[in-house]
Specification:
Helix content is 34%, strand content 9%. The chain is α/β, with parallel strands linked by helices. The longest helix has 23 residues.
Amino acid sequence: MPPPPRTRRLGLAAAPVAAAALALPMLGAAPASAVSVPTDGAVQEYAALGDSFTSGVGIPDEVDAECGRSDRNYPTLVSADLSPGSFTDISCGGATTEHMTEPQGSNPPQFDALGAGTDLVTLQVGGNDMGFADIVTRCAFLGTFNPYGEPCKNSYTYGGTDRLQERIEETAPKIDGVLEGIAERSPDARVLLLGYPVIMPDDGSNCHSTVPIAAGDAPWLRDTQKSLNDMLAERAQAHGAEYVDTYTGSIGHDLCKPQDVRWMEPLNAVDAAPVHPNAAGHEGMAGAVLGTALPVPAGGA
């Protein structure tokens, strides 16, 4: 099936099967309008960094077609709730940790959005560093011909080493570098690092006609996604950032569900790019961000 329109720089969204990659690396339980962040004071400068799961690729209206950035993505919803003094969304489809300090086509380095006065940063990155587009392309190809086995798992664990787990370990220091870079540029910012929402069913089942992942590969890929999210949570804790669990609240809203239930679009996408969060999914992620409790201030309750 042809790629969705206006996704030239989306990496994972450039082709329907490839789009599933980023998906395989969590959505909040409440819409942005339902919950507010408990703050000690108004947010002055909010910067949103991230990849296509942040930019909202394929969700109308796109305010930056090259990056697939929508005016209904979760940073925009968070900003509408918080009414910060300034808001910069520099997220871009296909972004990796490298694009925090390097330009991505016409999109400048994402760290350009940061300053000494930035006091809130949301970050969602790491899926493209994992190379999930290639992973899912391979898994879908193999699953097409062996729908009931675990051909993709076998291909990545041949010889007794799980090469996807190795990639997660290799991505961890890159996340460290991003969090350190934010701290250097915006030392007073509250940093929220988001995990990735559920895409395939959390119970390990599959819907082969929707995404041709083999029955035996589906639970392994789910566990790989959870491992990636666990790594992101650990890196956030190690750097004094806050991890936002967007996975738990998205369970039951996977791409196998009907259109009025799902928060993730299938390959036959209707409301967003294939295998990416739709508008309801971004409301869920915004709710997870807005519902994340602030740390208790030192010396206070």
